[in-house]
Amino acid sequence: MEQIDQIFVHLKHGVVAFLPEGLQPLVSILISVTAIVLVFPLLFALTTVLERKGLGRIQNRPGPNRVGLPRLPTLFPWLPKLRLAGFGQFAADGIKSLTKEDIVPREADRVVHFLAPFVLLVPVLLAFSVLPVGRNMAALDLRETGLLFFFAAGAATELSVFMAGWSSHNKYSLLGAMRAIAQMISYEIPLILSSLTVVMMAGSLSLVTIVERQSGVNFGFLHGWHVFTPWGFAGFWLFLIAACAEANRTPFDLPEAESELVAGYFTEYSGFKFALFFLGEYLGLFAISGLGITLFLGGWLSPFTFLNWMPSWFWFFFKLFLMIAFFIWLRGTLPRLRLDQLMNFAWKFLLPMTLINLVVAALWHFTNSWNPALRWLLGAILLTFSYWILGRGFEAKFRPRTYRYAS
Amino acid sequence: MSLRNLVHSALCLAVSLVGLALIYLGLDAEFIGWIQILVYVGAVSILIVFAILLTRGTEAPAGRITFAPWSGLIIAGAVFATLAWTVIKSKALTEITGNPSLDVSFVVKNIGGKLVAEYVLPLQVMGLLLTAALIGAVIIALHERKGLK
Question: Is ipTM over 0.90?
Answer without folding.
Answer: no
